[in-house]
């Protein structure tokens, strides 16, 4: 795809054209990132740097990475890491790529954690640690436990905790939601699978073909995880504690109904950057405030 001897600037133009023709948004920026992965050099640099030529190894590497992106593998998976809330998270095949939508959940959770106060956080379906480790970064007095059914996802979470210097405040355990958990938590968070099973294959190729189905498939109606979560969180939630959950488009009424049936009441609804309701905060009935 990219011949050896092609200049960095020309390679960027070539890759951007190929990506744009394939319908990939922000093709110029993605081409720049792919070339940086392949060569270690930034194709956006001006002058002589942009006119340096790719050697045979660099050209072959860039062509291989481009082929993966043209097959709709997300850039974050190709790079092996994704950015969220100003932090970088190592990813593997068992991890959901971090998404901006989840900022609504993090923002809602941070409102419940006064700066400087100690708190115990439980993250159900922790994945690579995106939510839990972001919260611990923002709240240095907090500690957290992340639970996931996937050992491979937990491996990424532990790697990220070490990289962020949080391994002394973050622990991880393999498990299904709250099953077998002991202890009491001030805040329970989760970004669970919420896509109805029938819709998973119709998602964008970057998601349908490359994100783990375990992190996407919410059962027939997309609500299985919420039923499981609310059936057990009351046992491990401190009196007056909160549950904060990400939801899919249009799911707020159904998730609220599930929560209410389990003795919880809605305290707050938060929207994502597009104005779509994306996170719900609950408290047990009878709790003050």
From TrEMBL:
<dbReference type="InterPro" id="IPR025714">
    <property type="entry name" value="Methyltranfer_dom"/>
</dbReference>
<keyword id="KW-0949">S-adenosyl-L-methionine</keyword>
<keyword id="KW-0808">Transferase</keyword>
<feature type="binding site">
    <location>
        <begin position="191"/>
        <end position="194"/>
    </location>
    <ligand>
        <name>substrate</name>
    </ligand>
</feature>
<dbReference type="InterPro" id="IPR002052">
    <property type="entry name" value="DNA_methylase_N6_adenine_CS"/>
</dbReference>
<dbReference type="InterPro" id="IPR040758">
    <property type="entry name" value="PrmC_N"/>
</dbReference>
<feature type="binding site">
    <location>
        <position position="148"/>
    </location>
    <ligand>
        <name>S-adenosyl-L-methionine</name>
    </ligand>
</feature>
<comment type="similarity">
    <text>Belongs to the protein N5-glutamine methyltransferase family. PrmC subfamily.</text>
</comment>
<feature type="binding site">
    <location>
        <position position="177"/>
    </location>
    <ligand>
        <name>S-adenosyl-L-methionine</name>
    </ligand>
</feature>
<feature type="binding site">
    <location>
        <begin position="125"/>
        <end position="129"/>
    </location>
    <ligand>
        <name>S-adenosyl-L-methionine</name>
    </ligand>
</feature>
<protein>
    <recommendedName>
        <fullName>Release factor glutamine methyltransferase</fullName>
        <ecNumber>2.1.1.297</ecNumber>
    </recommendedName>
</protein>
<comment type="function">
    <text>Methylates the class 1 translation termination release factors RF1/PrfA and RF2/PrfB on the glutamine residue of the universally conserved GGQ motif.</text>
</comment>
<feature type="binding site">
    <location>
        <position position="191"/>
    </location>
    <ligand>
        <name>S-adenosyl-L-methionine</name>
    </ligand>
</feature>
<dbReference type="Pfam" id="PF13847">
    <property type="entry name" value="Methyltransf_31"/>
</dbReference>
<dbReference type="GO" id="GO:0032259">
    <property type="term" value="P:methylation"/>
</dbReference>
<dbReference type="InterPro" id="IPR004556">
    <property type="entry name" value="HemK-like"/>
</dbReference>
<dbReference type="Pfam" id="PF17827">
    <property type="entry name" value="PrmC_N"/>
</dbReference>
<dbReference type="InterPro" id="IPR019874">
    <property type="entry name" value="RF_methyltr_PrmC"/>
</dbReference>
<dbReference type="GO" id="GO:0003676">
    <property type="term" value="F:nucleic acid binding"/>
</dbReference>
<feature type="domain" description="Release factor glutamine methyltransferase N-terminal">
    <location>
        <begin position="11"/>
        <end position="80"/>
    </location>
</feature>
<dbReference type="GO" id="GO:0102559">
    <property type="term" value="F:peptide chain release factor N(5)-glutamine methyltransferase activity"/>
</dbReference>
<dbReference type="InterPro" id="IPR029063">
    <property type="entry name" value="SAM-dependent_MTases_sf"/>
</dbReference>
<keyword id="KW-0489">Methyltransferase</keyword>
<feature type="domain" description="Methyltransferase">
    <location>
        <begin position="120"/>
        <end position="245"/>
    </location>
</feature>
<dbReference type="InterPro" id="IPR050320">
    <property type="entry name" value="N5-glutamine_MTase"/>
</dbReference>
């Amino acid at each position: 795809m990219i011949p050896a001897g092609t200049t960095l600037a020309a390679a960027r133009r070539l890759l951007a054209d190929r990506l744009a023709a394939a319908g990939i948004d922000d093709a110029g920026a993605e081409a720049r990132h792919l070339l940086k992965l392949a060569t270690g050099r930034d194709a956006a640099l001006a002058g002589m740097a942009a006119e340096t030529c790719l050697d045979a190894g660099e050209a072959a590497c860039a062509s291989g990475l481009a082929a993966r992106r043209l097959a709709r593998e997300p850039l974050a998976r190709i790079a092996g890491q994704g950015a969220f809330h100003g932090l970088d998270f190592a990813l593997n095949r068992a991890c959901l790529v971090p998404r901006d939508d989840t900022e609504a959940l993090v923002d809602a959770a941070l409102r419940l954690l006064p700066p400087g106060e100690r708190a115990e956080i439980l993250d159900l379906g922790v994945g690579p640690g995106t939510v839990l480790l972001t919260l611990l970064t923002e709240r240095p007095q907090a500690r957290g436990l992340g639970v996931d059914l996937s050992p491979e996802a937990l491996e990424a979470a532990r790697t990220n905790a070490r990289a962020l210097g949080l391994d002394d405040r973050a622990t991880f355990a393999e498990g299904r939601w709250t099953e077998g958990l002991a202890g009491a938590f001030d805040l329970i968070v989760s970004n669970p699978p919420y896509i109805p099973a029938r819709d998973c294959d119709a998602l964008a190729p970057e998601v349908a073909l490359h994100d783990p189905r375990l992190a996407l498939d919410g059962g027939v109606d997309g609500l299985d995880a919420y039923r499981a979560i609310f059936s057990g969180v009351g046992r491990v939630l401190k009196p007056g504690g909160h549950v904060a959950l990400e939801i899919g488009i249009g799911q707020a009424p159904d998730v609220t109904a599930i929560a209410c049936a389990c003795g919880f009441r809605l305290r707050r609804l938060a929207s994502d950057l597009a104005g779509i309701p994306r996170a719900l905060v609950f408290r047990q009935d009878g709790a003050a405030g």
